[in-house]
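Quick question, first post here. What does this chain look like in 3D?
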Amino acid sequence: MDGVVFSPAEGIQHVMHAYWKLHDPAMAHVQQAMFAKNISMLGAALLITQFGAGEIRIDSRKHAVPTGATCELVRNSSTASTQQNPWRLAALAASLVLLALLVAALLGPGRQNMTNYRSAVGAQQPSTLVLDGISISYADSGGSGLVVICLHAIGHGARDFEDLSRRLSPQYRVIALDFPNQGNSGPGSQPASATRYTQTLAQCIDKLHLPGVVLLGNSIGGAVSIRYASQHPEFVKAIVLCDSGGLGPPGPVGHIFIEAFVQFFAAGRRSAFWFPWAFDRYYRRDLLEPAAHEERDRIIRSAYKIAPTLEQAWRSFNRPEENLASLLPHVRCPVLLAWAKDDAPSFQVFPNHRLEVFEGGHAAFLEDPGRFEQVLRGFLNQVCAV
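> Answer (accepted):
Ran it through. Tokens below.
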């Protein structure tokens, strides 16, 4: 293309298209690339507005270079314009700083999206089961003691319970699952919901030939625990619920709140460039205490990866069949409620329950691990004594 002459606007467009043609394979989504192109072209337009430009041609190295006296013009005009209008140059500098921040924000999430951060939240050195053709990963501490099955919140993974497993072993056998399409488990064949995950739990218990178990569930994991305990009371010795969802039907405001989160995570599924920033702010309010920050940061880095599953789960929360209110009176086993906030009136429907309130946002076992272990051990000792 030696000797081809472009107008300034055409030259900028050609260079930007050549750049993104080379780099698109490293970018996960067209939306971010197109937005970054537009921002970059805006920055170039600011430079041309400030300094002026002659014609632009493409040399043998395929670099856009100004022709004629443009380079000299830039050198000479920069000093002159600064003397004539210092505010103009200050505005340009501020615009370029903003441009750099925008491009950095856009390209950073794009690079993150190339890495499977979701696996860092899941079971480490996992064992694997194949259930309905889906590879389900789980961590198993081993041992012959009472089995405690840990079920994570949506968007989390079995690694949430890594510290708890170390604390309880070897007296108890701790098994922590990665739900489908989370952690290191394979993609699910059905949308995420507590009903679907209850089927996964039932198949897991059956395939591992587990005796009576204690179920420990956080958020949607708690909903799974309640559903399974009501359906299979003969296999469940006790359940531990940590800020579980679905205990009552959402009212009109609740439906609006849920739909807002559906749209929020749908934006993440579409890889909206602002989503990682917003997801970060959301999770900083969800897991508050310093003890949970390491796991919280891993979850935040998986924002794009886990957004589609979060969208599916939040859609399910508005479905009447996912409500647990009618099942609660049928849970006859002992129930430990480890809550991050006092919501006691909702719990009176459990015939045999104990409430413990912890500081934190959404997961007492992550945010207050020492006290949680103490309370849990006392509860498990009572269960074993029966």
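Residues 135 and 186 are 5 Å apart (CA to CA).
Residues 5-112 form one domain.
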